[in-house]
Amino acid sequence: MIVQLLVTGIALGSMYGLVALGYHITWVTSRTMNFSQGHAVMAGAVVAFAFYVGLGWPLWAAVLATLVILAALGIGLERVAVRPFFRVASPAWLLSTIACGIIAENVAMLTFGKDARAFPSALTQKPILVGGAGFYAQELLIPVVGLFLMGGVQLFYHRTAYGKQLKAVAYNPEAAGLMGIHIPRAVMCAYGLSALLAGIAGVLLAPVLNVAATMGTIIGLKAFAVAIIGGLNSAPGIMVAGLGYGLVESFVAGYLSTGAREIIGFALVILVLVVRPWGLLGSRPARRV
Amino acid sequence: MTWVAWGCLAAAAGSLPLFTANTYYLYVATSVGLLTIVTSGLNVLVGFTGQMSLGHAGFYAIGAYAAAILTTRAGWSAWAAILVAILVAALVGAGVAGAALRVTGPYLAMVTIAFGIIVESLLVEWVSVTGGPGGIFNIPKPSLHAFYWVIMGGAAVSLWLVANLRRSAWGRAFLAVKGSDVAAESLGLSAYYVRIMAFTVSAGFAGAAGGLFTLLNGYVSPDSFTLQTSILFLLALLFGGEGRVAGPVAGSIALTLLPEFLTSLADFRLILYGSLLMCSIYWLPTGVIGALTRRGDSDSGRGGDRDSDRDRDSAGDGDSDRDSDRDRDGDRDNGGGVPLLQVEKASLAFGGVAALSEVTLTVPARGIQAVIGPNGAGKTTLLNALSGFYVPDSGGIRLREVPVAGRPPYAIARLGVARTFQTAQVFGDLSVTENVAVGVAGPRLGSVVAALVGAPWTRAAEARLRRRALALLAEAGLTEWAERPANALPAGLRRRLEIVRALARRPRLLLLDEPAAGLAPAEIAELDAYLARLRDTGGPAVVLVEHHMDLVMAVSDHITVLDYGRVIASGTPEVVRTNPAVIEAYLGASE
Known about the structure:
The complex is a heterodimer of chains A (289) and B (591).
Chain A: H1 2-30, H2 37-54, H3 59-82, H4 92-112, E1 128-130, E2 133-135, H5 137-159, H6 161-171, H7 173-178, H8 183-209, H9 216-230, H10 235-255, H11 258-275
Antiparallel strand pairs in A: 1-2
Chain B: H1 2-19, H2 23-48, H3 56-72, H4 78-100, H5 105-125, H6 127-130, H7 144-167, H8 169-179, H9 181-186, H10 191-217, H11 227-240, H12 247-261, H13 269-283, H14 287-294, H15 297-315, H16 320-334, E1 341-350, E2 353-363, E3 368-372, H17 379-386, E4 394-399, E5 402-403, H18 409-414, E6 417-419, H19 432-441, H20 448-453, H21 456-475, H22 491-504, E7 509-513, H23 521-536, E8 541-545, H24 549-555, E9 558-563, E10 566-571, H25 573-577, H26 580-587
Helix pairs in contact in B: 2-7, 2-8, 2-10, 2-11, 2-12, 3-4, 3-5, 3-10, 4-10, 7-8, 7-10, 8-10, 8-19, 11-12, 11-13, 11-14, 15-21, 19-21, 19-22
């Protein structure tokens, strides 16, 4: 039982962390984010399903096409719903991204259908049995890919020239702009990358969770909770919070009930913010006077 | 014009039951009414105070279930149940706000979302109280016709309450915190407390609507209270026009009727909502009501001028002003012997860079003390430390012998410290008069309930506040701007308004952060005369941070020079002018 809960918790938690990293990436470059990040996860799953099952493409081609489309969607979202309101104090970007999300959900409902469908995968055919516990190979693949990608994103930001430029924008947009960094392009890339990560999470989760037009909201909210708990400006905080949230959820569902899962999970968010208002590893934004 | 519109609306609502016996129309109309009640309350939080909530369905649910439980299991009457529903929702709202409003932006959005989801999940899980997924049935249900009047009355009352609130000291405090929480705190308002009150009021409105919703339907179940519901509330408010009293009505009518007309497009419901939201963000940033009233702005401007003329006449014979003058003078004499402000070896570093090191400064109870120094010398940091926005790492700040370092800005402001900012921080959505009225009232906002119902004594207090504000504006030569929004002021006058507002509280100490920056020479001369008059007529002590040396030398009694966070010279203008260290700091070494 414990092994099974651990595997499930780490698998889900790494996905929450990966999706939450998407919030972090756009937040630090633009102080905005896609509030419908969860719908990007849904889009990843639905588009992959359409290519793989609907059109019968080979898996690698379906995944590749999905990721290209997701990155394009992220860039399009930035253009339509974020850029017009960039750095405006009003929460217009928050509502416009929510609007795009609910439109996307409706479009998925019309094209994909209202029912959840299973995503066939070789890795979810037969459960692996360890002691009394059973889990799918996919659940082992998920955290491996997830942690690998989180590490990759960190390397990109710390080691590559372009990553460092994006980081400079995060620290001080004015100065970065003066140093010749094209800020609108940096924000565009951040949105593309953010949606890409969500799309990968969607593809990875599809075989475990089933694909549904309505799957986005709750994943997005939990990832958002993870980003907030970890601290929006702290990538390591988000990874730790992601795994922690996944484990808490999995154990609460295992030992108490699935209903208690949401209550305890989100109560924990409020509790963390009361104790540490800017997240576990996040830092308070400097007050401008 | 406005009254005609309200009259038509009331006539339409009043005559609907006469023309149709079709319960469907009545039901749709009651839905509009309920949504109006919720969004009127949400308007106080979002429109007035500038905070966001994506969890108001939670308060709606609390009101709904409180009413359901009280009328079924406890057998209470509908009226008593509604009253308790309001109180419970407001109480929970205050608690949630206490946790939520310590954070802002996305963090705040998260807390409200989390609250909404917790409530929704509890409704499903806590079966013994809420009846679980099935909800609560068999709630005593009045006839639709009778209840139609109750809900329409409730909506009208909600609008009236919010209109009263907007005109009260609380309403101004909400908009002040939205416009500039920093400036609001410098006038003695705790932004946290003001926001909590806005949140509590809005939760109470949602609770009332929830209670009515339950009694209207005769049953209640968890499906009505999802995140989608919270988003719908917000959408209705934004579409109608946030911050305007009529906005919720327009938004509620549009958002309720549109899906009813388009029932054949039920599958496209989310696309419809999403597109509506996008359109209103793009093309109606101030909502339907905002777009409709924008055209009439020039007219109302002229009308406003007439009003202010009348008010100026009546301002001449206000006796109450003189009373408070006396109070202040008595107060000041008590503190005669001790220095007003003492800064002792205050140090403050930002990430290893010393912005202030061991700054010592004494400000007497009267006169103008200038603080000068090259850019980056720590002048503004010093002002921020004096007014509580920064806390020194070491050293002490004492105001009339009371240690104040570490106290929040609004607490220091309440001890009689007022300030202006390097970039003038006026409350843009408020009129010029209202800006000053925020300063006059300071933290004395009275009871929020009295403000909501427009109690007679709050109206009398309002009239006094307004007279005093107009008198101050007249002194400063701003009368012709009195009814214009502060946003409309040119930069030079914004600075002047900021000083008038700061002085409105009759502070003991006024901190001015580069008041002459960006002013034309003629305006600087006016400022010079203004400061001299302030000093000579027994005004507050002034700490003046300024770059214009002519101004500093002309008005200052004492000058302190900072360089790299240290005091390098201190004395009368003549002494400082010839001090070699000062000349070196400004012009570089002479060798």
